Amino acid sequence: MAAKLSAEPQTLRSVCNVFAYLTSDNARKSFDKPAPCDPASYYLSEGAYHSARAILLQMECIILRTLSFDVKIVTPHHLAMTYLQTLGVFQSEPSSKSRAVAARTLAHLNLALFSPQLLYVNNQPIALAVAAIYLASREVGVKLPGNEWWEVFDVEREDLGFLVVAMTSCEAWIRAEKEKWLDRPCPLDIGELEVELKRRGEDSDA
After folding, report:
1. CA-to-CA distance for 181 and 88, rounded, in angstroms?
2. How many angstroms separate the CA atoms of 206 and 204, rounded?
3. Which of 12, 54, 143, 157 is the most exposed place for a label (fewest CB within 10 A)?
4. Distance CA 201, CA 55 (A)
5. 123, 163 contact by CB (below 8 A)
6. pLDDT tens readout for residues 89-134
7. What is the pTM of this model?
8. Phi-psi category of residue 157: left, alpha or beta, with phi > 0 → left and psi -120 to 50 → alpha
């Protein structure tokens, strides 16, 4: 479903091919320990593809019914670009700094998707967009108009401060998670997920 709504929609075959690779031994080996690639381990035959395609479509139907076919969402990404234009960051001829601010803004928004604090669930898209712009402008060194410009977009200082701290802590958390998963594969099916949840429960009880 996400592939269909993306800027570059992907085919069902592409999605199945990627999943076949992710569940192969090649993908399970650490990126820090390169090993010879064996294409045969993730080759998807025609029969296997049609089987995976049927399962994928069935799961899509279940998700759509659960959501009552309401898939309209507002993401902070396009809001952020609109706000940057409103704040005068984009001139008639975009400069290297304005491009850098836009790129860093989108980078912060994408990174926030991995936040363990579920920033996209617990905060409004407007606040996420403003926080990303705030961080990006400080990193690139672009001065925005007004001392408290975020109030124009109905974002409180306290909310902005929380999101800025949360976004800046994402990178360290992701780095720690990467180290944690170096020596074991990421669970990709129900059986592996149940094993991982059981292991975490035992660790918390210890």
Report:
1. 43
2. 6
3. 143
4. 30
5. yes
6. 887 666 788 889 999 999 999 999 989 889 998 999 999 999 999 9
7. 0.72
8. alpha
Give residue for tokens 């060194």: 141
CA distance 135 to 133: 5
Tell the residue number behind the tokens 């999605």, with chain if given. 15
Residue with tokens 């800025």: 164
Q: Which pair of tokens denotes residue 103?
A: 């790129």
* 21 vs 33, residue with greater confidence: 21
CB atoms within 10 A of CB 102: 20
The alpha-carbon radius of gyration of the chain (Å, integer) is 21
**What is the crossing angle of helices 125-140 and 76-86, to 10°?**
50
State the residue for tokens 């085919």.
11
What is the total residue count of the chain? 206
Q: Give the integer Cα–Cα distance in Å for 112 and 110.
A: 5
Which residue has tokens 């479509």?
57
Distance CA 26, CA 38 (A): 7
CB 160 within 8 A of CB 150: yes
Q: Which tokens in the block code for residue 68?
A: 């009552």
Calpha distance 100→50 (Å, rounded): 44
Residue with tokens 């998707």: 113
H helix intervals, the chain: 2-5, 12-22, 25-28, 46-66, 76-86, 96-112, 119-122, 125-140, 157-180, 190-205
Tokens 């720690």 locate to 176
